[in-house]
Structure to design on (882 residues):
């Protein structure tokens, strides 16, 4: 059978992993594929940088056009990162009838609808297993393995940097700043960690997962996003006292009418499978109406795990090329997805359990004033901890609530923060605890 | 596009789930597929039994031949269970050029090579996602998602009944007999639990996973199997004192030359992801050379989870039928698998850590005699617990060893059991603890 030819644009960390797999595992891959897979050309602006793999100079180029314009190349792998240039490169590849593999979640979250529509028109594929959770085959699971299911809810720990920092803060009781500095030293966080710690990268990935779960257009802007950079280790301790872990979660849930779309620090029971996902690991926990709960767990980043996903996509496209078929499974699981949208539930309409930490000045009647305001706003209390330790002259009161509407919780917070006996701002986090929903005390 | 027509043989629990999905999710499935999926006929010997779904009488038959002989039916779903008749039905379907979906792990483990060879010859597919771990897409992951990897090791909790019993024994300190009785009452164990509790069902599934992981023929007979029916709750307690959980694991590991193939109760660290897989849940934890560690977790059995896997297979075959392609991915991941074997490491050559429990009569010098024999056989001790509680006139001494050869461990046990100060038989379990490998005390 005619060998399938691959061109790679972006010879950085993940690119080096892909080159390593395509060269060192070439025999294994051709056994699995039944024909040969050839890495024809690799483009990168900087060819002098030291890399963990070497390639013959004749396979290297500084010009992406050498790949885009090569009629022998069937599959273009975009690993250059960034937005505008990557978008141009992917559109150029599509317009020339080439299939595309990318690990670029920001590109997909921002320009995915445009790119996928262009691919649909040209009858080519855009594959992106590596864009979410590195080597964990979550895209494959949603597109194919769980295709008989309606996805009812999905929780993801989708950013290894944020999870590493939270794990350090929780296990070693350090501040965010200390944990971030250590993560940077250990190579788990970049010099500018904004995308990771502010939940933006997690939102990019959630947008992709939601499209697949619901068979609908990408909709990054509708996701409510809150990061972990203002997290106080005190709240991690209190969370633990209530039996919870605090994780940066991507959450979506389908009530049949609207879907939730949110990224924020979340308290989850310590015996939940996701609570045991520590360090830089990633995981997705989802519930399908037929399959029930499913967890997929693994390394969400890194050279070889991400390369593993890229090469599995290359193999998948190569199988189609060998058989002369195209778009056997549409990128978002069904062809109609790009014409389909889901109504998003505004955050104010969310109904969930809350964790509040009030800083109470040490005067009589504080608890009754606070709980009075909560009650007036329809919020009932499931558990309280009030401890003697003073923080900046105030005593923390921590409450776990029964289910309440977000708008009511925010209104109550505003009123409480105006009390003379409270030192604002009140801290609040959302809780995902199926057992608490039903509880009454 | 021409609708794809499905015939189902076996209208039991899982069959009812498949009927439910194919009827109730018909719109979702046809959206995903891009063409219609029709359940044309369902065969079962007993049509009068009450079922959770109903079908028009004209779609029901008591004769499998009505399905096998129907030229309109493209895909035959075998859910009748059992070995000989199921083998005949699958062979008949293959010989008539029909694709087959089955959830029958015993059939695959015993007759898989024959069935897959017949399918290869006829150019049809045999799909079996539902045969291992219910709705967890582990077959898909091994065949496609992780195809760029060599699988280095794989640990599975593959039988929900056994895991449920172990969880009950561990959490509630009950005997095996009590936990089994409760599992039977709760519907988690069958009247004859032999296949589940003796590790046989787990071995069937391990044989399938090994074939996929290594791209080799099925080889059930080479798997060493030990069940949980003789487990003493005392050992679950001691395991916990050493920081371990005891699980019935399927284990395979590739040293590049030979592969391990074993099913037995195994001690794993309590902070291992698999230790948190409780109740009737299943999970597979594997390491690929590129992707690193991966865990897939979910319900391993039950009507709808298993039906979810069956229908994902039907969809996959239907996509190929719609496009006019066959065997896009061979059933075992590569066409050469059926001509390929892996050398199995005999259990006696295994090198691992051991847990020993000796029943020592209360006389001086017992510990020195026991550790002398261990030392003579090249086995060094990593940790010991000796406690005053008497069991049948003897005091338990529990030891955790450094890595030792299985043959040496067995020889030492034989010698120790002949000591007058020991009341045989000594209990031993294998440990999988990556941290212990390197430890020295």
């Amino acid at each position: 059978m005619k060998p399938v030819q691959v061109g790679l644009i972006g010879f950085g960390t993940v690119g080096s992993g892909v080159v390593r797999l395509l060269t060192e595992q070439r025999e294994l891959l051709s056994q699995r594929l039944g024909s040969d897979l050839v890495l024809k050309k690799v483009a990168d602006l900087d060819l002098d940088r030291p890399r963990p793999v070497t390639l013959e100079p004749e396979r290297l180029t500084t010009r992406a056009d050498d790949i885009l314009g090569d009629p022998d190349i069937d599959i273009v792998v975009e690993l250059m990162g960034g937005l505008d240039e990557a978008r141009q490169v992917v559109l150029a590849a599509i317009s020339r009838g080439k299939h595309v593999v990318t690990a670029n979640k920001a590109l997909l979250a921002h320009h995915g609808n445009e790119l996928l529509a262009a691919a649909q028109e040209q009858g080519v594929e855009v594959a992106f297993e590596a864009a979410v959770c590195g080597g964990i085959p979550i895209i494959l699971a949603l597109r194919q393995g769980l295709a008989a299911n309606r996805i009812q809810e999905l929780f993801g720990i989708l950013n290894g940097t944020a999870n590493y920092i939270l794990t350090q803060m929780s296990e070693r009781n350090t501040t965010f700043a200390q944990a971030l500095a250590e993560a940077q030293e250990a190579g788990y966080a970049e010099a500018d960690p904004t995308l990771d710690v502010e939940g933006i990268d997690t939102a990019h990935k959630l947008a992709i997962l939601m499209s697949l779960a619901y068979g609908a257009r990408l909709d990054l802007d509708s996701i409510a996003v809150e990061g972990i950079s203002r997290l106080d280790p005190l709240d991690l301790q209190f969370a633990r006292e209530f039996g919870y872990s605090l994780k940066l979660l991507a959450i979506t849930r389908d009530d049949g009418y609207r879907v939730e779309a949110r990224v924020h620090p979340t308290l989850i029971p310590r015996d939940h499978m996701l609570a045991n996902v520590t360090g830089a690991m990633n995981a997705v926990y989802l519930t399908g109406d037929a399959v029930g709960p499913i967890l997929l767990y693994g390394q969400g980043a890194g050279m070889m795990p991400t390369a593993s996903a890229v090469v599995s996509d290359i193999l998948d496209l190569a199988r189609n090329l060998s058989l002369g078929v195209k778009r056997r499974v549409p990128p978002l699981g069904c062809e109609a997805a790009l014409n389909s949208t889901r109504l998003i539930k505004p955050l104010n309409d969310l109904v969930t359990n809350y964790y509040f930490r009030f800083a109470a000045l040490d005067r009589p009647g504080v608890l009754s004033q606070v709980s009075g305001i909560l009650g007036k706003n329809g919020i009932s209390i499931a558990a309280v901890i009030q401890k003697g330790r003073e923080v900046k002259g105030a005593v923390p009161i921590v409450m776990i609530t029964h289910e309440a509407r977000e708008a009511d919780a925010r209104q109550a917070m505003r009123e409480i923060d105006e009390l003379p006996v409270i030192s604002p701002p009140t801290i609040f986090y959302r809780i995902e605890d199926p057992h608490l929903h039903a509880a009454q005390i």
